[in-house]
Structures are given as C-alpha cells and as structure tokens.
C-alpha cells in the first residue's frame, strides 16, 4: 500500500516493486544446521590439567607479522658436532713451495675446507645444548682466531700463511676477503707488498719474460667475484700497484684532495672541484716493501636505512647520522634475520646461507660497453646509471659522508672514492630463484678488506689488533681501545647515557658502552664486536623460537612433540642444493642427507 502505482524519477519501475511486494514466499527457508559443540564438562575432562590448550594460539600470535629465521627439518646433532671446529688442513704448493722472499714463512692452500661458491656462503658452527629451540646449532669460528683473511671467503687457488695474514696466488687475478667488515664509522687497515713490483726496473715485464707478480688492495662487498681483482665491478673499490691509481668498475682514475663545495656553483662545477694528485716518477708505482693504508668512512646505519628505504631528505638529514641519535630508527636497522642450515663437511659443521647476488642495475652500472656508444644515442642513460642517494634503483643509491682515503708509508696520498654505494637490503639481495627470502640483513653485510694477487704476488695484512699495532698509523687513529671506547656507563630505557647529551659528537650507547664511531679505529676491533653480535643474535633467535614453540606453557605441558611438529619443512632450500663446482664440495653430501 505504500508503493506508488505510477513510475517516478526516484522509482523508475514501480510496477516491478509492486509485484515483488505482493509476492509472498510459500515456505520459510530452511535454517542452517548449527555446529554441535561439546559441553563444558566434556571439554574440561579431555583437556590437559583441566585447562584448554592454547599453545597453538600463542604460536600463531607470535609469528604473525614478525620476521623470524626459517627452521628446517634436520636430524639431531651428532656427538662430534658438539666439539669445537677442527683446525684447517693445508697443502704445500708443488713442485715449488710458495715462500716469502726472506724464506721464513711458507704459504699453503687450505684443503678439505668449505669455500664460498656460486649462490652459497659458509660459516663455521657447533652444536650447543643451550640452544635446543633453534635446533642446537650456533655460530662459531675456527683457527687462527682474530682478524685475518677468511679461508672460506677466498678463491680456491689462494694460499695463506698459518696466521692468515699473508696471501698469494699462482694464477691470474684471484681475490680473498677478510673475516671482519665495516658497516658504519671510520676503520683502517694496512697492506704490505711482500712480493710484487721490484724496487727497481720496469713495472710491466717480469723475470725471464714471464708475468710479473702484482697486488691490488681495497674494500669489497660480498657480491664482488672472487675470481677477479679488487675494483673489477661496482661491488668493490681498489687501488692498483702499477701507476698507483684507483680502480672501480674496471675504470682507472686518480687520487684527489676534495675542495670545499660552494652552493653558488653549479653541480658540474662542484664535481670539478678536486685537486688531483700527480705522482712523481719515484712514486708512480707501488713496489715491494711499500705499505698502503686504506681508510673507509661510512655514515650511521640509521642514515643508511633511510637511504635504502627511499625516505632520505638531504634538507633534513644533513649530518652523517651520528650527531642526532634516533633509538627507534636504530632498532629498525638491527632487524637481523639469518636463514641458515647446518651442513656437515669433512669433519666440521658449517652454516649454509644464500649469498647475495649481483643485480641487473649493478650489471648495467659496471658495463663498459654502455659508456661511449649508448651514451651518445641515449642522453638520459648516463643520468640513470649515475648513483645518488635518491636514485630510483636501490642498488644505485650512494651513501653521503662516505669515502675511502689511501695512505702510503705513513703519508696521506689523497681521497680515492666518495659517495660509496649502499649495501643494506634492498640494495643487496639474494637470488630469489633458489628459494631465498629477499629484504633481510643477516648482520654481515658491509665493506670487507680485500686483496687480489696475480702470478705469485704476496701481500701481508695488518688489521691493527696485534701487539705492535700498525706499521704506519695515521695521526688521527685511536692509539688504544680507550680512545674510541669509553668506560661503561649506565643507560636509560631509551638508550641515552645518564648525564650525557644523547650522542653529540658521534657517540652512541650500544649495549651499555658509549662508543665514538667518528674516531678512526683499526678494523681488527671489529672481530670481538662481531663475536658479540653473533652471540646476541643467536640468543635472540633462541628466544624467538622459544616463544613460537609455546614458551613456558609448552614446557610445562611436555610439548616436545609440539616443538618438533612446529619445525618448518622447506623444500625450496633442499631443491636448491646441488653441485657446487667440479670438486663436488657440499652439494653432494647435502643432496644425500636431504
């Protein structure tokens, strides 16, 4: 009765509404069957200890939206897995051993030792009964202890001294990286040319017409190839011995002393404000006996995180990130996630992880064929491949307030590079095709001391943690640990030092210690810091898995079966296992085990 019989603009078809209103259903629709639930008494009688089981609910709440390391289905540890890593075995070079020119030290090649290859990275580990929730395995280290060249992160043809501080290679260019890395602040190390370009004569022709030994040194990221010299691509910055020039993307350049930039000048004019260094005839080449010091400066990790996340504002983020501490931003940079699986090899156990791989923007950035021909046909190509902090591609974003300076026999040569490329994810990414999870920092990303050898060149490294220190320490280097690490102070809940100004002058409170990251430090100081970081993140992973497994409620209810059932069975990593080279390495053992 309330429906009009004539159509109107608001009721365009009133007749239809009238018909629908007059049509009544002949039968009421059937009701849905209600779910039958047990009574309260029955639920209480079947529950453990008379209380409903909420372990699964806790697991789901603990894992939703929180990044955690992956757990894989692995067998329980063997008895030998609880022993410390065995010392490495070395093999002499045949038929003529590699010996230093003074005849005191022989360099040998490690055998039956895991070496980083292709898409995988290996670090020593041991089983520990205190880490039951993370499947008992934790990070460890092998002999020799201390900052040194890494036996795992080196080409298979590299030879080492027992101390790990002398390296050589009999073939073409091969590279080795150290076991310590620079992530922020100012760090320094030295390289002595033990055998290289002779002190007199030509720097190009070797004895009896053969190739001359050469050494290149610098800083390299984990993506840099080990079968190439330092400075081969965009992932490393090197210094050559011949002509003593800088090398990046296989392009040589000169050292310079940067001039103060003036805002009134254009960007092109500011780029030319460099006092280039001209070497004399006596200093044109780096020869045997010379000591090259390499100093790297990186901004704070909080500033680096802003750059790779695309929220860097040069008008606001003026400094290097150390003078204005943001505890919340620093906690975001410490979100370390390590997807690792323990694998046995030749009596030792190693954590196997997916290695970070070269990206397409970086391949284009290092492509020499695009420098001349393509730049002429595509004017915007040069701008697209020029790194800057706000680049559209994260791998090509550069770090302001970063630089590499080079010293020679205690004298400053000049600045080699500025505005180094960012390394935090997503600037660095593993190969997703193998099943790796991108976007996570495993805590070992950064710039590593790197040395490349050619045709028998021998280099000795000094990381500054020895009893004698550096051979030629820079004047602004911290002479002792107290110069860059003050006494332990108590801190507030927000991380600020009681009675301090919250980090003015580049000081930050980390784990109860106020540390001046702007002070130049020896790279060897990073060894103990990295051990502390590994221990800390192992404990955090154990606590994370403990909560995922139900916490104390699961232990009280005897939830060992629940813990075992919660282990993630990932087939992607098992499918990614395979041959790691013509020598077999770990691929065959892992394929048999999984």
TrEMBL record:
Residues 1-107, 250-276, 377-397 are annotated as: Disordered. Keywords: Nucleus. Residues 19-28 have a biased composition (Low complexity). Residues 184-467 form the SPRY domain. It is found in: Nucleus. GO terms for molecular function: transcription cis-regulatory region binding. CDD domains: SPRY_Ash2. The lineage of its organism: Eukaryota, Fungi, Dikarya, Ascomycota, Pezizomycotina. Residues 250-265 have a biased composition (Basic residues). It comes from Cryomyces minteri. It comes from the Eukaryota. Belongs to the cclA family. This is SPRY domain-containing protein. The keyword Magnesium does not apply. Residues 29-46 have a biased composition (Basic and acidic residues). One of its GO terms (cellular component) is Set1C/COMPASS complex. SMART domains: SPRY.
């Amino acid at each position: 009765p309330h429906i009009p019989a004539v159509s109107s603009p608001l009721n365009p078809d009133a007749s239809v509404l009238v018909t629908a209103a007059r049509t009544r259903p002949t039968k009421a629709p059937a009701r849905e069957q209600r779910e039958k639930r047990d009574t309260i008494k029955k639920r209480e009688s079947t529950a453990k200890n008379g209380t409903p089981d909420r372990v699964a609910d806790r697991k789901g709440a603990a894992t939703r939206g929180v990044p955690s390391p992956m757990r894989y289905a692995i067998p329980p540890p063997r008895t030998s897995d609880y022993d410390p890593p065995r010392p490495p075995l070395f093999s002499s070079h045949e038929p003529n051993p590699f010996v230093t020119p003074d005849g005191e030290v022989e360099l040998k090649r490690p055998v039956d030792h895991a070496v980083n290859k292709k898409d995988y990275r290996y670090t020593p580990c041991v089983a520990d009964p205190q880490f039951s929730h993370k499947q008992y395995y934790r990070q460890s280290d092998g002999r020799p202890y201390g900052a040194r060249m890494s036996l795992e992160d080196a080409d298979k043809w590299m030879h080492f001294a027992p101390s790990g501080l002398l390296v050589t290679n009999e073939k073409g260019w091969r590279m080795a990286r150290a076991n310590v890395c620079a992530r922020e602040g100012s760090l320094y190390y030295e390289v002595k040319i033990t055998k290289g370009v002779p002190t007199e004569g030509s720097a190009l022709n070797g004895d009896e017409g053969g190739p001359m030994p050469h050494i290149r040194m610098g800083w390299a990221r984990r993506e840099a190839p080990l079968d190439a010299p330092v400075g081969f691509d965009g992932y490393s910055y090197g210094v050559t011995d011949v002509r003593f020039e800088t090398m990046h993307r296989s392009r040589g350049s000169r050292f310079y002393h940067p001039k103060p930039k003036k805002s009134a000048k254009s960007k092109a004019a500011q780029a030319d404000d460099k006092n280039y260094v001209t070497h004399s005839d006596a200093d044109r080449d780096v020869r045997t006996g010379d000591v090259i010091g390499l100093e790297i400066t990186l901004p704070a990790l909080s500033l680096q995180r802003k750059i790779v996340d695309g929220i860097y504002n040069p008008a606001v983020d003026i400094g290097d990130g150390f003078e204005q501490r943001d505890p919340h931003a620093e906690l975001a940079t410490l979100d370390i996630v390590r997807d690792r699986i323990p694998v046995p090899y030749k009596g030792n156990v190693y954590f196997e992880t997916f290695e970070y791989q070269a990206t397409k923007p970086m391949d284009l950035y290092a492509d020499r064929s695009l420098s001349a021909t393509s730049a002429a046909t595509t004017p915007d190509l040069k701008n697209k491949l020029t790194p800057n902090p706000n680049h559209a591609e994260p791998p090509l974003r550069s770090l302001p307030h970063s630089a590499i300076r080079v010293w020679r026999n205690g004298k400053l040569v000049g600045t080699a590079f500025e505005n180094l490329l960012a390394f935090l994810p997503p600037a660095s990414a593993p190969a997703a095709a193998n099943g790796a999870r991108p976007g996570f920092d495993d805590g070992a990303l950064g710039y590593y001391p790197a040395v490349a050898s050619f045709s028998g060149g021998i280099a000795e490294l000094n990381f500054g943690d020895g009893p004698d220190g550096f051979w030629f320490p820079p004047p602004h280097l911290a002479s002792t640990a107290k110069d860059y690490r003050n006494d332990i102070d108590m801190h507030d809940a927000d991380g600020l030092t009681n009675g301090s100004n919250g980090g003015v002058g580049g000081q930050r409170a980390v784990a109860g210690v106020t540390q001046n990251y702007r002070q130049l430090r020896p790279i060897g100081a990073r060894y103990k810091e990295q051990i502390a970081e590994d221990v800390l993140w192992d404990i955090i992973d154990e606590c994370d898995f403990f909560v995922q497994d139900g916490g104390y409620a699961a232990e009280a209810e005897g939830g060992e079966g629940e813990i075992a059932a919660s282990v993630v069975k990932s087939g992607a990593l098992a499918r990614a296992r395979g041959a790691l080279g013509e020598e077999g390495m770990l691929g065959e053992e892992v394929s048999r085990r999984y």
